[in-house]
């Protein structure tokens, strides 16, 4: 009967049928499983659970370290830093029982997080079958964290397990993360591990811990908006269901329903819930040794750019403090073109891009500009290879000190020259180029703060910007709309970031 009960519990919990429910069994945190990649040249925390007061020993590559569990059965040890190696080894953990993790490599480990554009798999790309069939990079390994919400911090979470970069598995990998890793691995020649923890449609506040959230100025507005949604959600759902019924009846009669559907926001207990993705999908990963993080998110916060400008840096600072690795590299994707249908101003995405860029004030951050690889009609643009490649180039230069171009032109200043403004840029050592036609997506304003379309010429890697409607310009903007026809690049083909010289 006892064996049958354990068997049933294992099935219900989704555990292997050989799993024992005895408290004495040694267990490891979810990232420590077969085919894992550990971070090179950093102290390596290894942790898990066993019985209270039990002595646990970890052995890996000639190191043996022990610890005694606390009264809740938790244990953690730290291995000395290890150099990268392409030769796998077993990691053995011994207490009253023994766990062996096979085929463990040491190399570079990156966390990939955010919402749907990070979550999109290789299998979703137009040329997926051709790309996946050619993948044979077993030194690149990817683990997906199961999408899990939690109202309190979790100690463990289900995962896909670590999977090597082969056609059998690669279709399930985050496309952006894969192209990032493939470009890095080719340059570095060492194993690369990707921890993929993302959720489509998630807002940034769900990836933040409660303490950090409650400390930001934006929290009262976030909480009020959330409470209002919780209160009204049953009515919202009922109205939506009623519309679906009317729409079905109209279609059955052969007449279109002219009434648009009510907007159905994601409600309580979803990836919009404050702190719940953090509790379920980030806490169980800490303090796994990392090199850094890549982030692609912001679409779900486009309507709250002022909040985002505060939340995003606060989240980065909090993650860094929680991991205890100092100011580890944090690189993110600035949102590309998208014709947001709910934005009457046509500038909502320009503002959220600006809010993202404010995180550059933090050390060891950088931004992959993607204005040239979006699709105005698709919030999920398909050109993921170039996004991953740009993130990888940022890391290659800044982390691994590989010479190369990694950043497009960035606005430096604007000075009045008669009826024009001269715009100076940083990051133009390879030149300033207008692709295909004269510089586009520029606007000027005078003291009345009304912006008008402007033209420009490139002179010695600067822009001289004029508008016949603005005789005395005081402010200039570039790519300041949801879907700008931006065409400024440097000689390395990296796009200029959108900018404005005003703060109106």
Distance between the termini: 73 Å
Number of helices: 10
Radius of gyration: 26 Å
Helix content: 25-40%
How much β-strand is present in the residues?
25-35%
Overall residue-averaged pLDDT value: 92
Structural class by sheet pairing and helices: alpha+beta
**Uncertain regions spanning at least 5 consecutive residues:** 1-22
In this structure, how is the largest beta sheet organized? 11 strands, mixed
Anisotropy-based shape = globular
According to DSSP, the number of beta strands is 23
Short description:
The chain is α+β, with helices and mostly antiparallel strands and 504 residues long. It is built from ten helices and 23 strands.
How are the SSEs placed, and which strands pair?
Elements: H1 2-13, E1 27-28, E2 37-39, E3 44-49, E4 55-60, E5 63-68, E6 74-79, E7 85-94, E8 98-114, H2 116-119, H3 128-133, E9 137-144, E10 163-165, H4 175-188, E11 192-198, H5 210-215, H6 219-252, H7 276-282, E12 292-296, H8 305-323, E13 330-333, H9 348-357, E14 365-368, H10 384-398, E15 410-417, E16 420-426, E17 432-434, E18 442-445, E19 451-459, E20 462-466, E21 475-478, E22 488-490, E23 499-500
Parallel strand pairs: 2-8, 8-11, 8-12, 9-11, 12-13, 13-14
Antiparallel strand pairs: 1-3, 3-6, 4-5, 4-7, 7-8, 9-10, 15-16, 16-20, 17-22, 18-19, 18-21, 19-20, 21-23
């Amino acid at each position: 009967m006892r064996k049958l009960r354990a068997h049933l519990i294992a099935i219900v919990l989704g555990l292997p049928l050989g799993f024992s429910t005895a408290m004495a069994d040694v267990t490891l945190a979810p990232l420590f499983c077969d085919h894992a990649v550990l971070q090179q040249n950093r102290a390596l925390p290894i942790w898990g659970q066993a019985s209270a007061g039990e002595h646990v020993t970890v052995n890996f590559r000639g190191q043996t370290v022990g610890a005694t569990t606390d009264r809740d059965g938790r244990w953690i040890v730290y291995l000395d830093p290890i150099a990268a190696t392409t030769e796998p080894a077993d990691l053995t953990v011994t207490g009253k029982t023994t766990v062996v993790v096979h085929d463990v490599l040491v190399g570079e480990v990156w966390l990939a997080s955010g919402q749907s554009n990070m979550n999109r798999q290789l299998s979703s790309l137009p040329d997926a079958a051709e790309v996946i069939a050619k993948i044979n990079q077993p030194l690149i390994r990817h683990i997906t964290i199961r999408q899990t919400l939690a109202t309190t911090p979790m100690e463990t979470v289900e995962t896909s397990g670590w999977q090597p970069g082969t056609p059998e598995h690669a279709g399930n990998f985050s496309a952006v993360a894969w192209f990032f890793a493939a470009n890095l691995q080719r340059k570095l020649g060492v194993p690369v591990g990707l921890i993929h923890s993302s959720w489509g449609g998630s807002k940034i506040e769900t990836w933040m811990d409660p303490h950090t959230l409650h400390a930001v100025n934006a929290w009262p507005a976030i909480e009020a908006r959330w409470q209002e949604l919780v209160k009204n959600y049953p009515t919202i759902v009922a109205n939506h269901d009623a519309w679906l019924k009317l729409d079905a009846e109209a279609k059955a009669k052969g007449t279109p329903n002219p009434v648009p559907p009510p907007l159905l926001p994601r409600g309580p207990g979803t990836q919009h819930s404050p702190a719940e993705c953090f509790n379920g999908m980030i806490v169980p990963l800490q303090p796994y040794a990392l090199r850094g993080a890549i982030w692609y998110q912001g679409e779900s916060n486009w309507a709250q750019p002022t909040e985002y400008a505060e939340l995003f840096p606060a989240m980065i600072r909090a993650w860094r403090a929680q991991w205890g690795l100092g100011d580890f590299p944090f690189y993110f994707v600035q949102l590309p073109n998208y014709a947001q249908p709910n934005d009457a101003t046509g500038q909502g995405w320009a503002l959220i891009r600006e809010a993202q860029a404010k995180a550059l004030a933090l050390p060891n951050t950088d931004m992959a500009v993607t204005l040239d690889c979006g699709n105005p009609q698709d919030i999920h643009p398909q050109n993921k290879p170039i996004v991953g490649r740009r993130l990888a180039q940022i890391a290659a230069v800044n982390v691994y000190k590989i010479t190369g171009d990694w950043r497009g032109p960035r606005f430096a200043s604007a000075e009045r020259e008669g009826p024009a403004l001269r715009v100076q840029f940083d990051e133009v050592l390879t030149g300033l180029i207008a692709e295909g036609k004269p510089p586009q997506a520029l606007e000027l304003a005078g003291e009345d703060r009304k912006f008008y379309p402007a033209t420009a010429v490139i002179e010695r890697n600067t822009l001289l910007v004029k508008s016949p409607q603005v005789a005395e310009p005081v402010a200039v903007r570039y790519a300041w709309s949801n879907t700008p026809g931006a065409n400024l690049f440097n000689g390395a083909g990296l796009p200029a970031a959108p900018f404005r010289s005003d703060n109106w």
